[in-house]
Amino acid sequence: MFRTQTCGELRIADINKEVTLAGWVQTVRKFGSITFVDLRDRYGITQLLFSEALNDQLDASPLGREFVLQITGKVHERSNKNKNIPTGDIEILVDHFSVLNKSITPPFTIQDDTDGGDDLRMKYRFLDLRRNAVKKNLELRYAVNRATRDYLHQQGFMDIETPFLIKSTPEGARDFVVPSRMNPGEFYALPQSPQTFKQLLMVSGYDRYYQIVKCFRDEDLRADRQPEFTQIDCEMAFVKQEDILAMFEGLIKYIFKTVKGIEYTEPVARMSWEDAMWQYGNDKPDTRFGMQLLNMKAPAHVFAQKDRSAALVDGAGFGVFDDAETVLAIAVPGCSEYTRKQTDELTEWVKRPQIGMKGLVFIKYNADGSFKSSVDKFYNEDRLKAIAEAAQAKPGDLILILAGTEERTRKAISELRLEMGKRLGMRKDDEFKLLWVLDFPLFEYDEEGNRWVARHHPFTSPKPSDIDTMIGNNPVIENAATYLSHPYANIKANAYDMVLNGNEIGGGSIRIYQKELQQKMFEALGMDAEEQQHKFGFLLGAFEYGAPPHGGIAFGLDRTCAILGGSESIRDFIAFPKNNSGRDIMLDAPATIDNKQLDELQIKIDLK
Amino acid sequence: MFRTQTCGELRIADINKEVTLAGWVQTVRKFGSITFVDLRDRYGITQLLFSEALNDQLDASPLGREFVLQITGKVHERSNKNKNIPTGDIEILVDHFSVLNKSITPPFTIQDDTDGGDDLRMKYRFLDLRRNAVKKNLELRYAVNRATRDYLHQQGFMDIETPFLIKSTPEGARDFVVPSRMNPGEFYALPQSPQTFKQLLMVSGYDRYYQIVKCFRDEDLRADRQPEFTQIDCEMAFVKQEDILAMFEGLIKYIFKTVKGIEYTEPVARMSWEDAMWQYGNDKPDTRFGMQLLNMKAPAHVFAQKDRSAALVDGAGFGVFDDAETVLAIAVPGCSEYTRKQTDELTEWVKRPQIGMKGLVFIKYNADGSFKSSVDKFYNEDRLKAIAEAAQAKPGDLILILAGTEERTRKAISELRLEMGKRLGMRKDDEFKLLWVLDFPLFEYDEEGNRWVARHHPFTSPKPSDIDTMIGNNPVIENAATYLSHPYANIKANAYDMVLNGNEIGGGSIRIYQKELQQKMFEALGMDAEEQQHKFGFLLGAFEYGAPPHGGIAFGLDRTCAILGGSESIRDFIAFPKNNSGRDIMLDAPATIDNKQLDELQIKIDLK
Predict the structure, then answer these.
(1) Structure confidence by residue, pLDDT tens digits, B184-203
(2) Does B591 touch chain A (CB under 8 A)?
(3) How far apart are the CA of B196 and the nearest CA of chain A, in angstroms?
(4) Which of residues B101, B123, B151 is at a domain's end?
(5) Do residues A590 and B601 touch, judged by C-beta distance below 8 A?
(6) Which site among A219, B2, B236, B601 is 20 to 30 Å from B131 CA-CA?
């Protein structure tokens, strides 16, 4: 060992101990012939005092930032104590020192508020990782990993490794593929998730499986997506939805407790997918704050069966509302006194291309009970008051209204709600609200192909009460215009998402375990018998040999850690992340490979 | 939940309890109108008793092997107890039953000694995994995984995930590569190990890292190699070799204790690579038994500096020995009374192509002290006795001697030693002998390229005392014939392997952390500055910013589990293994992919 103690452990009780420390030079401060050095390692910072006796030696071999230093010396009480660090009561009077390795000047400072930009820090990620801010994130990640394993172990789960070199069965996202040299012309695929393997393990009788495992998706990367990501992947047999919800509510509460010291005692709230869409405009509502949506017209596509009077806005001669498919409002608390400049800014905000609305209508419900709106010409005070009441607004609130086509308007009001929540400080990093979203539709309509696609994945079971509907009907959509009246449009999935602070952190379902139902599902997704056999023959085969009822869930570890750490960026919680083009800037990967490698693989590059 | 208890937990104390169980039908035995069913799940087997009242219902819906069954009933004491299973005191008197899923007849029996052949079991791996024998292996694997994490956590190690999509830097084994759709013409590689990343983490200050992680090597598969395999991957900073040995001796002992209940209290034996080669003929000796090699001539290549008289065999006019480069013997205990048939069989054994020797010389050291050999014509009793004494033979032993070229003969005697140890029951599955092999050569000579290759990998440090030799000499080998006298031939590595029962289960080294030394190493391996920069620029860069001294080790999890489980085959300890052509027979992978996928990746298949 190059040290007897770490830089984080010495205290006043250690005074007069002879110690050897090793670490990095954080700062060097010279006062005449005396030099102070802050020595840093993973565990903390300890102040070193180089007395006059070492001055010549230091001059001959000057220390610089990030040099690796080994020192031996005696622990002294500091005259000038630093209450900000745990070792602040002591310093080491250095007897000997030796430079284990030198450093050239780092391209940015190794400090919490570094002067390094994003690209520079990614290129020198090995230096960025030295910063305390990044280290804390990786420590949090390890704590989540550890807590997860402990809880699942206690609950009888077994970690079973599933293969990485599997078969390409692209459904939805693209697979990364791996050419096989030993089987020329053939490819492995990297798993998008261990989905079918964990189901096979249930068929095999391993009734509680888990894995913390890398998954891969070759998607066009949006901000904050990574081509490789980590899942907490779980599956249970002989369970119903309620069992899974209870088990994994337990997991997330255990993580809160052990990692964050938070006792999340209340039961996790539950909301149907329809209610989430209806009240919040999206399927992962941030329930740290209210500001629920008022639907002034009934949107047709999502809520076919919901009925709501449009009397609130109709018949006033206001074309924008009358002609709109959808009119949605939120009541923003305490903002009735927004100035013209402020409401103009909000209007500009919703007109940005990312939001894409044509304009914003507002109603100020003044503190004195009076109303002032941008549509006073069309709506008298009584009607404005009726709207305000329907929106659950109070005096002092500002009602914001968007109108347009259904999907875009819903998305826009949802974004506006989140934006206002953020501006008003209602989305606190250290407040955590969990939510189960349930009862998703099993299918989504794919306009392009005029067919059904699986909303979750093809292995998700319909609600037991919908199985007959699914088996008994032809999935083919005869008339695109009336797809909403196809029996499949109303089939609900036995699926669930866990939402934390407006982010989906986990999702899963009770699975299909009957061969016939699985075949019907594949058929509904447009897969003929031959394709079913080619892609999923092993699974259909397994279902012939006594498959038990089962279900599971997968949590996104990167995202979960980011939210627990109070960050929006998953990259901050990954040791070696890739950028938005899927590149590792530090490694400079991907890269060209040798022709010899291509030859051996019997493939050719064929650039368009 | 589909059950209130598992099939493994009910005992005599549970009598009269109403329970619901779910599981698989192991056996059905009908006695008139009464039926006994053994119900199996992950936890055990429970006997069910279907009374006469259920007879009609059973006739209408007959049960078969591997049906998934749910039953409700009352726990009864069995009249005919089964002492072989923990639930053998009780049975369940069934009130209700329901078939959750049916099974067609399995292609082989779900029993410890199944009638299924290897290929069939691989194709239906989901059924093979139901067998208790396989389940126990996966449980052992999970126990090893868990023990490893517990120990390393206690020791302050952090699990930090490293990327899977990295850069191809083929050194030795081939990389699997992954075409990048977003960066056409470029490829990622799958890691052969997280070697450079864990070193970067040391540079970053995370001084104790570990990961249980999949690695990938595109090798021509020998028996019992897998293209993807799992490593327990560890690295520490500010350590010397002794610290690593102590830490990981601790790990393996902890695993022995928690997983196998074995207190391995003695210190792990240590042996230099030279001694291992000299005394056992290979670098991973099985030290459960002795039978050490007698070198009758000094082999030149491995033991250039060793000096040994050839007087034992020379000058007797026996050409086979006189002309041989190498003559090696072992004394097999208690086999002096082998018949002619037995010695002939051994002769045939060494002449098989896998061993490749031309013949076998034997000396019987009879119990009465007399000698009888196949070379009596050339060696009188005195000389035979001298050989026997040198071989540490005792009366009653059989001395076996091989002669030929150095490498082949050494390999052959080593195989013969292992074979004789096995035949004589000296290699017990439940006896465990650990060994550190130390002081490997840093370089191996590559005849084809007349150059040096890294014996371990290019990041392994030479012994501190050899650094000057390495820096101060030109690695180029001027004359192939005298490569042994090149200064590099005698440089020793700061490397160590852990050997268990004759298998290398782990290996590692103290790493190079000085930029200049790393460059010299790359240069020695024939990499020019440009190639160094292209492949390892990030690492050389990192070494400029204060890299600490560090080192590490990686254990092969698959192999370690196999040996702990008393098996020779790692496949038995992998849930979904591949066969010797790298195929997953169950999935039928690798497989062809769609042209659309190839187009998007901008590659073409180019079969030779």
Answers:
(1) 999 999 999 999 999 999 99
(2) yes
(3) 10
(4) B101
(5) no
(6) B2
